[in-house]
């Protein structure tokens, strides 16, 4: 609190990013959030911005109407305030500068966030995902693979989890020897086991081969992985880096496997660029799509020049290669990059998702993230800039993974139990630091921070709201007919993910959401089934026998209708009262209340459909007084419909 | 002329047909006067019926004595026929070429087609101007129906009945017509019931280099303004192009002569540019290289999406002038038969909920395209694959459909029809068994006696059996103006047309079916609940005397 000089500023203007519209309201600064409350009581919108979400604050030069403050968020929100007095602006600015750069983990929101749960509930939340059970589901341990305790004390590899799975023929000395020959000690371990063909997906970091070094233990290790699979005489070694990068690493004593030294390996580069290229690419992409009055050629050229979709496609291509090698050839694959925690995580996780329908369910997707990202030490703290450490370590690696999954949902609308809203919500929380899951860089660090005792699990929170994230078109039978997804890699299948990168830009979205409409209908179907049942019971009291209802979907207990609070899904269905309640309890939903809460729960509105917002072109020399209302009224502009 | 003269080899056996994402079929190929037919001998399920008019171009290849004909269709499909025997193959290829490039309208298939269904509601009688005028009359008495163009002499490309301001007599109309390109004087396109504002369309005024003016033309458009009100003229050309038009006798409205009007110039491209764009886009979509950069740069170079954005933006602007500014609008380009119609018809879709129903949309096409004289025959003679010398082909109507699709994507619950309806319309403008899109103007259609000699597309489409597949299950009528986003991020490539034959849609189709299923199940349940409630209510009223103590 000591950093907050001015907790409240009135008469602040909020400018729309893409049009000339603005609203006036009050800005509040709390220990955790920056809050803007619109003063127009009729449609009073509130914007809640978590300090952790703020990527940068910029004070622009003074204008006649005040001092502009530009805030860019990691969840791709961009807000532009104009504060009447420069003094206030400066106070907010300097407070934010301090607040958005926490220096120690203890300052993170997760350690103060309290969702009014008791210790038992919290513990249960952390027990939701059990990786040992996941390996068991895959069929490990088995006659060829076993759990090793070499890393129980994090002695062999500090960034790996305690429990690791290796071939039974890989003895302790081989493991230790191999780990010494691998960057950061990240020796080859099992991450996914394809039971049908007994083929394994293993991961590691680059070998310290330099120009000529070799390591017999490491060679034995790969041999052991190969031997564990009787279906194939060889294993693939996928180096996910471009060949040039791998070559350059040799000069630093690192590099890649020499096919002459390893028997029966098929070595392959797949050419995914490094974290710095990815960071630059996203920055370029955001610059392009953030341009006002963007022309079509500038958009398409910008999209191409950013290289973003090319990178997404490269990751997807690699994952498809992996899935094909395993499921078609029945070969085991060893995946690595440099340190084996960025590109390797992307390719292993996406490859597993292609091979195993379980990872396409809500729970299964959580397990996948827990396994390939959290436990194997993707450096979330560094990559997501949770603590201000090194801007060169920040990179949207995990965002790319989520986007690849979204691209797949576009090709296979029935394959996933969750909708894109689920992916966006997870993305929100890798930066929010509201839950413990993504804090820190590896398991050892998380244990040191005692996250399970001091913070809550995101997975429990998301499962609680599962209704919101369901894909209404999901078909479990699709998984049976398509156990392995074979996406097309034609370039035109890769699209700009508008709902992610413009999630807060109301004017960009379809004005009616099919997703929300079908979700609502499905929910209504469940309620109607219950009503039919209840009516039949009543009728039976009158001695009327009715044919038993054969529900097409099993009736479930009545639950609350979905209340998506997303621009993508349309206006939130929160009532004013509930908002009040949330405030009272100081339980701040992560997604700020962007929209005016609809007056009644049953109403749907055609989102932000207004002529002024879209900027079709300024009418030259408009005659007479313009009767453009500052706030779009419901009468025209925003279409309104009632169920 | 007998078709038989053009058919050297009427049939060939052992022909193998390759189609994208479908199993190959072997069978007998037959050529008739209007169709290319392939039927497999085993069972008659796998058949290809292709109208010759749908064929845009063909390519021949030979490996030994096995010939291959690659047939590229106007609906953008590409199929391959392997024909044993070099002579057969050459004969068939030359027959297809001859039959698919027949110029004579009277030889077109619609004149030979006999429907296999009973015509219950004749599409030719569905959308007659008198009926539309009756609707207008119920809202305002400011307009009258003029017969000045009865014999198409005042304006050859206008219909015989025209809606014009009440206070303007036929003589003035004739004078105004002589001042507009092709005689296309300003006439009513749309009346906005909410505020009484109107949208008119015309062709460019013939001001020429010496700045000619025409009092009647000025009077005509001023008659549509209420006292003290002003209006907007939307010229679909850039100011530079409009200036250049002066040299050829055309031009634009001078401020001095039209003081009550403010002119806005937009930049919708002319037809030859659009055709070039279509060819490039289709080429990009058929590119089999999987390179991301190559795809994006080709997509950009085609400029197709830019055209979509520009047209949609202009239509939104027109709608904005009418609905938000409360001003009347006059739209024109050069001839007033292409970009003008794109703008006026799209603006109506935005403003008028009636245009978002199936009947309303058909009426819109009838009014703003067919009767308004869009030269369908010229514009749709060739498509993206043609090797022929380009004449005046242009995907003007396809761009309109693309824009409608963009709005449909953004307001998926506001249209009674679905994407299939738009795709079907696209197909029928290029090749059809129906007479609806034959000819270039009403006068021509009257002369060809289309309404007597051919079947209307609407007679077929509006049958409940056909209509079903064009209905949007998500439709919920709403009476509001719908403002689409025209940001490039909001505009998508219309995959249903351009990637239609390049990708497997099995997964997407199944998902769509699932959505339909959910919606239908909901209706079913609601009916069930209602009937149970009624049953219960009845029992309760019967029982109530017993239950009351």
UniProtKB/TrEMBL annotation, chain A:
GO terms for biological process: phosphatidylinositol dephosphorylation. GO terms for molecular function: phosphatidylinositol-3,5-bisphosphate phosphatase activity; phosphatidylinositol-3-phosphate phosphatase activity. GO terms for cellular component: cytoplasm; nuclear envelope. Residues 125-501 form the Myotubularin phosphatase domain. Residues 543-629 are annotated as: Disordered. The active site is at 337 (phosphocysteine intermediate). It comes from the Eukaryota. It is found in: Cytoplasm; Endomembrane system. Signal peptide: none annotated. Gene3D superfamilies: Pleckstrin-homology domain (PH domain)/Phosphotyrosine-binding domain (PTB). Residues 581-594 have a biased composition (Acidic residues). It is a peripheral membrane protein. The keyword Magnesium does not apply. Keywords: Cytoplasm, Hydrolase, Lipid metabolism. Substrate binds at residues 274-275, 337-343. Residues 306-350 form the Tyrosine specific protein phosphatases domain. The keyword Repressor does not apply. Belongs to the protein-tyrosine phosphatase family. Non-receptor class myotubularin subfamily. PANTHER family: MYOTUBULARIN-RELATED (PTHR10807), MYOTUBULARIN-RELATED PROTEIN 6 (PTHR10807:SF34). This is Phosphatidylinositol-3-phosphate phosphatase. It comes from Phoxinus phoxinus.
UniProtKB/TrEMBL annotation, chain B:
GO terms for cellular component: cytosol; endoplasmic reticulum; perinuclear region of cytoplasm; ruffle membrane. InterPro entries: Myotubularin, Myotubularin-like_Pase_dom, PH-GRAM_MTMR6-9, PH-like_dom_sf, Prot-tyrosine_phosphatase-like. It is found in: Cell projection, Ruffle membrane; Cytoplasm, Perinuclear region; Endoplasmic reticulum. GO terms for molecular function: protein phosphatase binding. Belongs to the protein-tyrosine phosphatase family. Non-receptor class myotubularin subfamily. PANTHER family: MYOTUBULARIN-RELATED, MYOTUBULARIN-RELATED PROTEIN 9. GO terms for biological process: negative regulation of autophagy; phosphatidylinositol dephosphorylation. Residues 123-498 form the Myotubularin phosphatase domain. Coiled coil: none annotated. It is a peripheral membrane protein. This is Myotubularin-related protein 9. Its main location: membrane. Keywords: Acetylation, Cell membrane, Cell projection, Coiled coil, Cytoplasm, Endoplasmic reticulum, Membrane. It holds the Pfam family PH-GRAM_MTMR6-like.
């Amino acid at each position: 609190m000591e950093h907050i000089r001015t907790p409240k500023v009135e008469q602040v203007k909020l400018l729309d990013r893409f049009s000339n519209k603005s609203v006036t309201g009050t800005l509040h600064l709390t220990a955790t959030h920056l809050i803007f409350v619109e003063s127009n009581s009729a449609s009073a919108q509130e914007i809640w911005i978590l300090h952790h979400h703020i990527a940068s604050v910029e004070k622009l030069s003074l204008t006649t109407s005040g001092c502009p403050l530009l805030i860019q968020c990691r969840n791709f929100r961009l807000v532009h305030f104009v504060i009447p007095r420069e003094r206030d602006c400066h106070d907010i600015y300097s407070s934010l500068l301090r607040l958005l750069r926490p220096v120690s983990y203890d300052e993170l929101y997760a350690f103060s966030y309290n969702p009014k749960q008791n210790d038992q509930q919290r513990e249960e939340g952390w027990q939701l995902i059990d990786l040992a059970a996941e390996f068991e589901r895959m069929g490990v341990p088995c006659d060829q693979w076993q759990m090793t305790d070499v890393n129980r004390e994090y002695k062999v590899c500090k960034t790996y989890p305690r429990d690791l799975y290796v071939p039974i023929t890989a003895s302790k000395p081989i493991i230790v020897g191999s780990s010494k020959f691998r960057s950061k000690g990240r020796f080859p371990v099992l991450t996914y086991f394809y039971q049908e063909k007994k083929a394994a997906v293993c991961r590691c970091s680059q070998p310290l081969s330099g120009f000529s070094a070799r390591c017999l233990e490491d060679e034995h290790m790969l041999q052991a992985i190969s031997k564990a699979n009787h279906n194939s005489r060889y294993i693939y070694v996928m180096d996910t880096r471009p060949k040039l990068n791998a070559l350059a690493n040799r000069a630093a004593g690192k590099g890649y496997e020499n096919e002459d030294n390893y028997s029966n390996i098929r070595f392959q580069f797949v050419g995914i660029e490094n974290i710095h290229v990815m960071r630059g690419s996203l920055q370029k992409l955001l610059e392009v799509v953030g341009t006002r009055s963007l022309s079509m050629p500038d958009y398409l050229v910008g999209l191409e020049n950013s290289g973003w979709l090319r990178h997404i496609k490269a990751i997807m291509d690699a994952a498809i290669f992996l899935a094909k090698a395993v499921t078609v050839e029945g070969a085991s694959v060893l995946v690595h990059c440099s340190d084996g925690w960025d590109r390797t995580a992307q390719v292993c996780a996406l490859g597993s998702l292609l091979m195993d329908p379980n990872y396409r369910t809500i729970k299964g997707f959580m397990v996948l993230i827990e396994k390939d990202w959290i436990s194997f030490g993707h450096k979330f703290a560094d990559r997501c800039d949770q603590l201000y450490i090194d801007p060169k370590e920040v990179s949207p690696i995990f965002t790319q993974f989520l986007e690849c999954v979204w691209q797949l949902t576009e090709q296979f609308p029935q394959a996933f139990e969750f909708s894109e809203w689920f992916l966006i919500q997870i993305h929100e929380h890798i930066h929010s630091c509201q839950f413990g899951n993504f804090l820190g860089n590896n398991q050892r660090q998380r244990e040191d921070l005692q996250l399970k005792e001091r913070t809550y699990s995101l997975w429990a929170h998301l499962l609680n709201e599962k209704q919101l994230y369901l894909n209404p078109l999901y078909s479990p039978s699709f998984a049976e007919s398509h156990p392995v997804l074979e996406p097309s890699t034609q370039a035109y299948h890769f699209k700009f993910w508008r709902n992610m990168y413009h999630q807060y830009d109301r004017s960009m979205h379809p004005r009616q959401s099919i997703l929300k409409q079908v979700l609502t209908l499905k929910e209504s179907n469940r309620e109607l089934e219950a009503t039919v049942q209840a009516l039949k019971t009543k009728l039976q009291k009158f001695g009327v026998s009715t044919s038993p209802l054969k529900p097409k979907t099993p009736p479930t207990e009545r639950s609350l209708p979905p209340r998506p609070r997303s621009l993508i899904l349309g206006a939130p269905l929160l009532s004013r009262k509930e908002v009040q309640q949330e405030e009272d309890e100081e339980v701040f939903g992560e997604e700020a209340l962007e929209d005016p809460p609809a007056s009644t729960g049953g109403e749907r509105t055609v989102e932000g459909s207004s002529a002024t917002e879209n900027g079709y072109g300024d009418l030259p020399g408009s005659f007479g007084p313009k009767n453009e209302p500052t706030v779009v009224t419901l009468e025209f502009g925003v279409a309104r419909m009632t169920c | 002329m007998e078709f038989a003269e053009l058919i050297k080899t009427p049939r060939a056996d052992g022909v193998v047909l390759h189609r994208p994402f479908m199993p190959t079929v072997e069978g007998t190929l037959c050529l008739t006067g209007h169709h290319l037919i392939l039927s497999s001998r085993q069972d008659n399920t796998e058949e290809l019926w292709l109208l010759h008019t749908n064929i845009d171009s063909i390519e021949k290849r030979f490996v030994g004595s096995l010939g291959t004909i690659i047939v590229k269709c106007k609906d953008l499909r590409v199929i391959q026929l392997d024909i044993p025997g070099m002579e057969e193959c050459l004969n068939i290829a030359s027959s297809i070429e001859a039959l698919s490039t027949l110029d004579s309208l009277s030889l077109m298939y619609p004149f030979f087609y006999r429907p296999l269904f009973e015509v219950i509601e004749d599409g030719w009688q569905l959308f007659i101007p008198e009926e539309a005028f009756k609707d207008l009359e119920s809202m305002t008495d400011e307009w009258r129906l003029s017969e000045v163009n009865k014999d198409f002499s005042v304006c050859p490309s206008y219909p015989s009945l025209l809606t014009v301001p009440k206070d303007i007599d036929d003589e003035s109309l004739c004078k105004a017509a002589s001042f507009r390109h092709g005689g296309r004087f300003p006439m009513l396109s749309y009346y906005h019931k909410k505020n009484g504002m109107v949208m008119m369309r015309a062709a460019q005024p013939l001001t020429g280099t010496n700045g000619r003016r025409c009092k009647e033309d000025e009077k005509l458009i001023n008659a549509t303004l209420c006292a003290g009100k002003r209006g907007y003229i939307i010229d679909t050309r850039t100011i530079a192009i409009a200036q250049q038009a002066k040299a050829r006798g055309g031009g634009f409205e001078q401020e001095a002569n039209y003081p009550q009007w403010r002119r806005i110039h937009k930049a919708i491209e002319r037809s030859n540019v659009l055709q070039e764009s279509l060819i490039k886009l289709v080429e990009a979509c058929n590119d089999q290289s999987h390179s991301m950069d190559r795809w994006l740069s080709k997509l950009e170079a085609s400029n197709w999406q830019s055209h979509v954005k520009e047209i949609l933006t202009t239509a939104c602007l027109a709608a904005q002038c009418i609905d938000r500014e409360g001003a009347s609008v006059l739209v024109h380009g050069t001839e007033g038969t292409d970009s003008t119609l794109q703008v006026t018809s799209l603006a109506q879709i935005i403003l008028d909920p009636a245009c978002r129903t199936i009947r309303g949309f058909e009426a819109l096409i009838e009014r703003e395209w067919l009767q308004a004289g869009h030269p369908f025959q010229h514009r749709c003679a060739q498509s993206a694959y043609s090797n022929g010398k380009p004449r005046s082909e242009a995907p003007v109507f396809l761009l309109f459909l693309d824009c409608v699709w963009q709005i449909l994507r953004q307001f998926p619950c506001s249209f009674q029809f679905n994407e299939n309806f738009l795709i079907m319309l696209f197909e029928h403008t290029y090749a059809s068994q129906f007479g609806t899109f034959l000819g270039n103007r009403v006068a021509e259609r009257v002369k060809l006696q289309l309404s007597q000699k051919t079947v209307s597309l609407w007679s077929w489409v509006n049958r409940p059996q056909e209509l079903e597949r064009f209905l949007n299950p998500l439709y919920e009528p709403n009476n509001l103006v719908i403002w689409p986003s025209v940001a490039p991020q909001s505009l998508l490539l219309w995959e249903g047309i351009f990637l239609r034959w390049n990708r497997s849609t099995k997964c997407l189709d199944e998902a769509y079916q699932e959505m339909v299923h959910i919606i239908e199940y909901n209706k079913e349940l609601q009916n069930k609940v209602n009937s149970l409630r009624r049953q219960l209510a009845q029992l309760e009223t019967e029982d109530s005397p017993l239950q009351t103590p």
